[in-house]
Write a structure and sequence with these properties.
about 160 residues, alpha/beta, about 30% helix, 5 strands
């Protein structure tokens, strides 16, 4: 098995995973990625998933490779360009562990420990930042993921 790999810069090695991981190729894919780990030096490896289907075997390979990379002091990030792949990683609770990003530049930032860009919210002002209420009596909006649903609902009042 041969996986396409290239250096993004001196500190980042990109490995493209272009096929679905199944019982026939799981061992070869893992062996190939682990073989490439010493090439990275002190930097990071980015696995670019180029398929929308992520099997449980693929998730296992990514976790084992991450573990072996961490033992060698190499960070790992994952590019999941398809929404379905990102949803699978998120549903499995691996989006933070594997440092998942939608694009290669995003994965490069995630491999350095940077946080992903915040999603635009309805309260966002220019540049995606939340507007801060003034001290002139404006009540601050509730915060948190369930802020809008945790307030009591009274019919006829907003």
């Amino acid at each position: 098995m041969f996986l396409l790999s290239y250096h993004l810069d001196p500190a980042h090695l990109v490995v493209e995973l272009g096929e679905v991981v199944d019982l026939d190729n799981v061992a070869a894919i893992e062996r190939e990625i682990v073989r490439l780990l010493p090439c990275c030096g002190p930097g990071a490896i980015i696995v670019d998933i180029q398929t929308s289907l992520l099997t449980p075997l693929a998730l296992g390979v990514l976790l084992r490779v991450r573990s072996q990379a961490a033992e060698r002091g190499i960070s790992l990030a994952v590019v999941a360009g398809y929404d379905k792949a990102r949803e699978t990683l998120s549903a499995a609770g691996l989006h933070r562990v594997l440092r998942v990003a939608a694009t290669l530049p995003g994965a490069e930032l995630r491999s350095r420990g940077c946080r992903p860009e915040p999603e635009a919210s309805r309260d966002a002002g220019p540049g995606g930042r939340r507007s801060v209420p003034s001290a002139a009596g404006a009540s601050p909006r509730p915060r948190g993921p369930y802020a809008d649903t945790s307030r009591p609902r009274i019919p006829g009042k907003r």
